[in-house]
Design a protein that fits this description.
heterodimer, A: alpha/beta, Rossmann fold, 34% helix, globular, disordered N terminus, B: Rossmann fold, 4 domains, seven-stranded parallel β-sheet, 37% helix, elongated, Glycosyl transferase family 28 C-terminal domain-containing protein (chain B), hexosyltransferase activity (chain B), Glyco_trans_28_C (chain B)
Chain lengths: 376, 685
């Protein structure tokens, strides 16, 4: 069996302890086992990679990969692969048993296309981090939540089971689902958000903002609003309308000529940000981002980010929440007031501190402190 | 209107859309298929099936949007759904076979994301519902008739589905032929194109064969009381639909599949032999005498009720939609084919004139005939003639199909006159279950008489064969109680000597010349046969005569060669009043189409007959020869220009015209069939 990596900060202490006492040190430090299908793409992979970077310094970390039906045939997401290589953490595929003090199961929806989970989880605490909203706007289920939770619940022998939402909106969907459904197992909802770590390098805003708009996302249909909203957000009058991830528009040729279209991955994110001053991001009205990492990326890149009010609420004012019909006015006002533009971007970047590694570490340490052998 | 879309853009999904559209339409719903969901490649049969339903989504006012096959939505389909522009309150239904709750959520999500609105969901794979066929796309269902819809009488109409592979086996065709020999069985075989071709090339070519996609399942229903399915299993979605519709109509479905594919689902079918050789005996011993009772019990089956189309429609809340009401006043619609002249339309008009019942009569007619018909007091719906400019050779007929479907309603009577039964008429009659009459004159060329040309006769409840004047010209191409022979259908109107003189006087005034000699030429517009040389020669011969008027008759709208304009004695006239002109003429030079020929005979007009020879025409030479042998006309073949000169002289300078007049007056011609045909149509076959 592969040996899990040990936290760097406590490594010297462990060695010293072991040499002195001859007692294996493993039980003294909480073991944290991550369980995930590492083949998912997008912001979630980046968030988990950042989390591994941090947590591997706080606890003994194992990373267990599930080859779920949802991502069959895909390879490990590059962000995660890089992080694992950097941390020299082996990826343990489809272990029959996972035993740890804390098991963090990222993205339970990865189980939605299967009826079995051939892995046994034994832990003090099992935390399921809900990267996908349980419910969509309007109340329809986002995925078969009951089945996914039941698969995990049936496969686990734990003292505590907890669901960890990643944002206020995400929490709202979890609470709403839990209040109306009767999951087979007892699941507590974690009282704090298991947010995406946003440890981006902050870019200075341009002193001369222009009406250069853009949006970037995976190309899924859920990521795009209806045409009338897109037309409001990316009008002909704008100097630039850059759509990165516009695969479906490129396929059907329906996009207006004044949009500059790139397929997903057709432009590096930095090249994309060079072309815009405003990130205008709306999704299908029947879907909503659970966190909205693309917006955090835009703020960090020195842009004004505009989205719907519910999505914006995660960012405490760093993202401007507005109706699509208000976008033009917002953009116009900022262009006419570059100082305000710069001030608000910088202010937004400051608010991203809420999602920093430091903030996450503090929260995570609280969790570890509740574990036997964890830091007090 | 209901707008139909599918979860994928594929031939299979499109076929399912066609099946579903037909199913909804049969319930009186107004249905359209979003044209963007049509796959790139479609075959002729699909084009006919789709034509009544295909629409640009932006052109219709959708009241409900139904997405079928939603269990496996493709990106392409999502892109198209994103472009559907319907009011926010228009419900969208995701109809699919969902094995799991996640499948339902997936379908719901994909439509919700693409369209920005939440769909309703209908799962066709309910645990309690039997599975008719694995992998179905269409929401197959059937209307359940109150009583078995089977034909009266001791015998039965039998449809046998047999795959090509089985037809290739030894004795399969013989087995079918043996079944067909039974006087109590009217057999139709249903197979794929290869199978049909195999039968047509065999010694059993006369079997009635339907190609797999030749008619949609609900149209095929008219052709059988009992359906027997051979092969290894249920042969696909279309045949499953056919079997289901048959059950819902109270017909007998015999499951002859080797795996008992239908019976295993619990469907109300009877299990039959899996070898064709045994079918005939089984049919007579087990089914024939009990077929109505078997059908009655099928209709009471609880299995069948789970496929009740009305229940499905209630589930997707279609009951509130306006239903298409059939026109309460039945009509008789004549559809003469677009021949090279006006012959078919003339014949139909003569029959229509002779009809006496109160049923309104109107025409679906090609432009070349419309003036003539309207002048005779008939209303016309214009049909579109074929053109080489069309992408598909059948493009015009496709439009005509739509027009016929719009024109005709169940309960109407349709009378088709022509040699080749167009898809438009064949499909309309089959779809609307119309009482249909085929006016089919004879004298086909030997190569034209084959099972393929005659197979569409099965759509007609009545075939009226206008006879030729001379017995040796009449043949029976098919037999049966539905065939009625009538005397020649011919325009009549014998002019008196006074009327003849009056007409010649009017012509003299019209053309400002004395008329000692009047010659009428009716050789056609050159479409069927090139006759410029003959016409020019006649012009030349007649130019040398004093006080000679030569009228070259062209049908209204016909194109006439410009070289005819320079003659002094010869003039082109556009008219349909040929009968009077011919009687006033000293000589008529005519092609030998059915109508012209019989008009000449019955009006006792001396004539030189020059048969047209295009391969698609009737055998004009035989017709002309029969008259010439009786000394009732002169025959000049197209190559015999010198003979033409001699005959013209013999008629105009010699006594031949008088001899022929006398012979015609002495000839005992059969009674005309105009009234008889009219009565037969009124009686409905």
């Amino acid at each position: 069996m592969l040996r899990p990596a040990r936290p760097r900060r406590v490594l010297s202490l462990i060695l010293s302890f072991t040499e002195t006492t001859g007692i294996p040190p493993v039980s003294m430090y909480p073991t944290v086992a991550y369980v995930l299908d590492p083949r998912f793409r997008g912001g979630t992979s980046s968030a988990v990679a950042a989390e591994l970077d941090l947590v591997s310094g706080l606890a003994r970390v194992e990373v267990h990969a599930l080859s779920t039906a949802m991502f069959s045939g895909r390879s490990v997401a590059p962000q995660l692969g890089d992080a694992l290589a950097r941390l020299t953490l082996p990826l343990i595929w489809d272990a029959r048993e996972i035993a740890a003090d804390i098991v963090i199961f990222h993205n339970p929806s990865c189980l939605k296309f299967q009826d079995t989970l051939a892995t046994r989880i034994v832990a003090n605490k099992l935390i399921v981090v809900t990267h996908e909203n349980f419910l969509r706007p309007g109340g329809a289920e986002g995925f078969d939540v009951a089945k996914c939770l039941e698969l995990i619940g049936d496969s686990s022998t734990v003292l505590q089971r907890a669901i960890a939402p990643i944002s206020p909106w995400n929490r709202q969907t979890v609470d709403s689902w839990v209040s109306t459904q009767s999951p087979k197992h007892d699941w507590a909802v974690q009282p704090w958000d298991w947010f995406n770590i946003c440890s981006f390098e902050m870019q200075a805003p341009t002193p001369h903002p222009a009406d250069r708009r853009g949006r970037h996302s995976r190309p899924g249909f859920e990521k795009f609003p209806q045409q009338d909203v897109m037309d409001l957000c990316f009008p002909e009058a704008a100097e630039q309308n850059v759509i990165l991830g516009a695969d479906s528009y490129l396929r059907d040729g329906s996009a207006p000529a004044h949009w500059t279209l790139y397929p997903f991955g057709g432009l590096s994110v930095s090249q994309y940000f060079e072309q815009i001053d405003f990130c205008v991001y709306y999704t299908a009205p029947t879907w909503r981002e659970s966190f909205g990492r693309v917006l955090a990326e835009a703020i960090a890149a020195g842009k004004i980010a505009i989205s719907d009010p519910q999505t914006a609420q995660t960012f405490d004012g760093a993202v401007i929440g507005a109706a699509p019909s208000e976008v033009n006015d917002i953009v116009r006002r900022y262009i006419s007031d570059p100082v305000r533009y710069q001030r608000d971007v910088v202010s937004g970047q400051g608010k991203l501190g809420k999602f920093s590694s430091t903030a996450f570490e503090a929260t995570f340490n609280t969790l570890l402190g509740q574990m036997p052998g964890g830091p007090r | 209107m209901i707008l139909l879309c599918s979860g994928q853009i594929s031939s299979r999904h499109f076929d399912a859309l066609l099946l579903f559209a037909a199913q909804l339409e049969s319930g009186g719903h107004s249905v359209a298929i979003d044209a963007r969901f049509m796959p790139e490649e479609t075959i002729k049969q699909q084009k006919y099936e789709m034509a009544p339903f295909l629409a640009d989504a932006g052109d219709i006012n959708a009241e409900t949007i139904l997405v079928i096959g939603a269990e496996a939505m493709s990106d392409d389909a999502q892109i198209l759904l994103r472009g559907v522009n319907a009011r926010a309150d228009v419900p969208v239904w995701a109809i699919g076979h969902y094995a799991t709750h996640q499948d339902e959520i997936n379908a719901r999500n994909k439509i919700a994301f693409a369209m920005g609105r939440e769909p309703e969901l209908l799962n066709l794979s309910k645990a309690s519902k039997p599975l008719l066929l694995e992998g179905l796309v269409a929401p197959l269902a059937t209307r359940i008739a109150p009583h078995p819809e089977q034909s009266d009488g001791k015998g039965c109409k039998l449809l046998v589905y047999m795959p090509f592979e089985m037809l290739e086996e030894d004795d399969a065709l013989t087995g079918l032929a043996i079944t067909n020999y039974s006087p109590n069985v009217e057999l139709h075989v249903l197979t794929n194109a290869k199978g049909k071709d195999l039968i047509r090339r065999s010694k059993h070519a006369a079997l009635s064969v339907f190609g797999y996609g030749e008619l949609p399942p609900d149209n095929l229903l008219n052709y059988f009381d009992v359906a027997a399915f051979f092969g290894s299993n249920i042969p696909g979605e279309r045949m499953a639909a056919l079997a289901l519709l048959a059950m819902g109509s109270g017909k007998v479905v015999i499951d002859c599949t080797t795996t008992a594919g239908f019976a295993e689902t619990g469907a109300p079918v009877v299990r039959g032999p899996d070898r064709i050789e045994a079918l005939s005996g089984y049919l007579h011993d087990v089914v024939m005498h009990s077929r109505v009772e078997i059908g009655r019990r099928s209709l009471q089956s609880s299995w069948l009720k789970q496929f009740d189309a009305a229940a499905l429609e209630r589930e997707v809340q279609l009951t509130h939609l306006p239903r298409v009401q059939p026109d309460p006043v039945p009509q008789t619609v004549f559809f003469p084919t677009n021949g090279n002249g006006l012959g078919h339309a003339q014949r139909c008009a003569l029959i229509a004139d002779a009809m006496q019942d109160e049923t309104p009569r109107r025409f679906a007619a090609f432009p070349s005939c419309i003036d003539m018909l309207e002048n005779r007091g008939f209303g016309c719906v214009p049909m579109v003639p074929r053109s080489d400019d069309h992408g598909d050779a059948f493009a015009a007929d496709l439009v005509n199909y739509i027009r016929l479907r719009q024109l005709l309603r169940p309960g109407d009577r349709v009378v088709f006159d022509g040699g080749y039964v167009f898809d438009s008429i064949y499909r309309t009659v089959s779809a609307l279950k119309l009482s249909a009459t085929w006016i089919r004159r004879g004298l086909w060329r030997p190569g034209q008489i084959n099972p393929t040309a005659l197979e569409r006769e099965r759509a007609f409840s009545q075939v009226i064969v206008p006879q030729e004047a001379f017995a040796e010209l009449n043949s029976d191409y098919s037999t049966g109680h539905h065939i009625d022979k009538v005397g020649p259908i011919v325009r009549q109107g014998k002019l008196s000597a006074k009327e003849v003189q009056s007409l010649r006087d009017r012509l003299s005034i019209q053309f400002d010349q004395e008329i000692d000699t009047l010659v009428v030429t009716m050789l056609g517009g050159g479409v069927a046969s090139e006759r410029t040389a003959q016409t020019q020669m006649l012009c030349s011969l007649l130019e040398q005569r004093t006080n000679c008027l030569h009228l070259i008759v062209a049908w209204p709208n016909a194109v006439v060669a410009p070289g005819l304009a320079g003659w002094r004695n010869s003039h082109v006239v556009y008219t349909t009043r040929t009968l009077a002109l011919c009687q006033a003429a000293d000589l008529t030079v005519s092609a030998v189409g059915y109508n012209s020929f019989h008009e000449i005979l019955y009006a006792q007009v001396p004539s030189i007959l020059i048969p047209q020879s295009a391969p698609f025409l009737d055998d004009q030479e035989r017709r002309a020869r029969a008259a010439a042998e009786r000394n009732l006309a002169a025959l000049v073949l197209e190559t015999e220009l010198l003979a033409l000169e001699r005959e013209v002289s013999a008629f105009l300078d010699g006594a031949k015209a008088d001899e022929i007049r006398k012979a015609l007056a002495a000839e005992c011609l059969p009674d005309t069939g105009n009234v008889a045909a009219a009565r037969l149509i009124e009686q409905g076959g």
